[in-house]
Amino acid sequence: MPLPYVYRVTKYDPADRDEHGHYTGAEDTVSDHGEIEAAYLRAVEAFAVEAGIDRLCVREPQVPSLTHFGAERPLADFGLDGLFPTGLAGFHDGAEVPLGVGLELVRVMLRDGGAWCRLEVEGVIAVHVGWDQYVYIGSSHPCTKALARTRALGLFPERLDASPYDVETGAEDVQRPADDDFWAALHWAVAIGRAGILEEAYIEGGSRWHRLALDTLDTVRAGLAPRARLAVWPDLSSDIDAVLGALPVEGLVEYVWQDRDGRIHSAVADGDESSEPALRTARAGAAALLSVYADERIPLFTAVLPDSDGAVRARWRTEPTPSDRNWAFLKTLHLGEIVTGTVTRIADFGVTFVDIGGFEAMINIPELSWRPVDHPSDIVSVGQEINAEVLDVDLVRERVSLSLKALHEDPMRLLTGRIGQTIVGRVTRLVPFGAFVRIEEVENGFEGLVHNSDPTDAHQDSPGPGIQVGDTLPVRILDIDMVRRRITLAWAGAVT
C-alpha cells in the first residue's frame, strides 16, 4: 500500500523553474561528492530517525543501473565494495542493512555507481533515488522535524502524491515458487535428461549458472541467494563444434559454457565471424547457445525463491513459460472435482486424452467404465464433450488423471444381492482351469469364472465335457469380490 506522505527532496530551488517546471538554475545534475551529497544523506537519516528506523530493507537491487555515460567515473564493484561482508551476493532482495549502510547505498546511487535499489521498511518508510539527484522519501506520518532538518541542510522538500519509483503493481500473472514441489520437478527433469543447467538471477543484471546433476541438486539449492529468480534450461552439449556451428549469422546470442575446471560462464556473442575464434579459446568442455531476445528466450520452467516460511515476497517476477502456466492450472484442481472437457485423441496404447481448460488430461482404460472395455472407442470418441472426476494431479510430471466411471454407480454392486441365486449365462471363453460365463445379457456384461476345482454339491448336475462357447447354462453365484473385480460361479444344472 502506498505511503501517505511522500516528499521529493532535491538541491534544486523551486524558484529556479520555468513555466514548464524545468529547472534553470546553476546546480549540476551529478553529485558534488561533498557538502551537498552529505546533506542528502543527513536528510534521509533525519526521516529514518523520526520514523524510529535503524535498519532498512533492500528491495529489487540492480546492477548496472543509472549512468551518465562518462559524467561519473565508474566505481569498483558498482560502488558496493566493502558494504556487504559476503560481497555482491549480499546485495539481494530482502537484505536488511543498518541505517549507516543504507545511507552508503544512497551515496552510491547519488553517484550513479551502477548499483540501484529501493530502500524500504514496509508500511513505515521508503527511500528511492532517481535521476539527476532527485530523492523521494515516503513516510507513514508527516515527519515535521525531518522536513525542518532537510530545509536547514539547504535542500528543498516538496510534497507529492506518490514516488515515481514505487513498484508498479499490474495484473497478477503466474509466479511459481521454488518450493519443494519445484525441486521435485527439477529432480525428475534432470533424471530423465530434460534439464541440465540452472540460471540464478540473484540481482537484476547479475546471474550465476549451475550445472545440474542428481547428486548436486541439494548443494546447488543451499547455495542460492535469497529471493533469486530461477530458470531451468536443457543441459550443455559436449559437442563444441556443433554448438559453434549454430551461431546465428547476425544478431546477438548468449554463449554459456563450462570450463575444464567445472566453472560455468556466460557471454554475449555477436553472430559474426569474429565471435567464433574468441569462443573457441574459452576452454569450454560443454556449451550451449541461448537467445538474448525475450520472445525467443524461453526456459523449460521458472520460479522465484520463497523466504524460509514459504512465502514469496520478492516483487520481481519471472516470465511464465508454458510449463509454469500448466503448474498454475494444476494448482487449481482438486481430487474428486468434476471437470468438463473434450476428447482430443485416443492413443494407440489405449489412453484417452481430454482437453480441460487448455491442459490435456488422460483417462486410462480401466477408468472409462465399470464394465470390461476392449478399446476406448467403445466408450468415447474424438470431439466428444464429457464430464469426468479428477483422480490424481501430478505437479512433478505435469499429469492429470481422470475417471469417467467414477460419475456412475458400480453395476457390479447390484449383483451382490444375488449371491447364492441361480441364473442363466452364456459361455464366452474356455480356459484350461475352467469356463467364463457372462451372467448379464448386455454386450459388455460381467463375466464370472466357473473353476474346474470349485467344490460342487454331490447331487449337482454337471454340464459334462461337451461344453462349448455360446452354450447357455444355469450357474450359481458363489462370491463377488468388489476389490479384485472377480465373480466366482458354479454349475447349477445341465446344458439347456
Integer-rounded radius of gyration:
36 Å
Label the overall shape.
elongated
**What is the CA-CA span between the terminal residues?**
85 Å
- The overall strand count is 24
The total of helices stands at 9
- The average pLDDT is 89
How would you sum up this structure, described in words?
Helix content is about 15%, strand content about 30%. The protein has nine helices and 24 strands. It has helices at about 35-50, 100-110, 145-150, 180-190, 215-220, 240-245, 275-280, 320-330, 410-415, and strands at about 5-10, 55-60, 95-100, 115-120, 125-130, 135-140, 155-160, 195-205, 205-210, 230-235, 250-260, 265-270, 285-290, 300-305, 340-345, 350-355, 360-365, 385-395, 400-405, 420-430, 435-440, 445-450, 470-480, 485-490. The model is unreliable at about 455-460 (pLDDT under 50).
Q: Which helices and strands occur, and which strands form pairs?
A:
Layout: E1 5-10, H1 35-50, E2 55-62, E3 96-98, H2 99-110, E4 116-121, E5 125-129, E6 135-139, H3 144-152, E7 156-160, H4 180-191, E8 197-203, E9 206-211, H5 217-222, E10 229-233, H6 240-245, E11 252-259, E12 264-270, H7 275-280, E13 284-291, E14 301-304, H8 322-330, E15 338-346, E16 352-356, E17 359-363, E18 385-394, E19 399-403, H9 411-415, E20 422-431, E21 434-438, E22 447-451, E23 472-481, E24 486-491
Helix pairs in contact: 1-2, 1-3
In short:
This protein has helices at 35-50, 99-110, 144-152, 180-191, 217-222, 240-245, 275-280, 322-330, 411-415; strands at 5-10, 55-62, 96-98, 116-121, 125-129, 135-139, 156-160, 197-203, 206-211, 229-233, 252-259, 264-270, 284-291, 301-304, 338-346, 352-356, 359-363, 385-394, 399-403, 422-431, 434-438, 447-451, 472-481, 486-491. It has 496 residues and is of the alpha+beta class. Helix 1 runs antiparallel to helix 3.
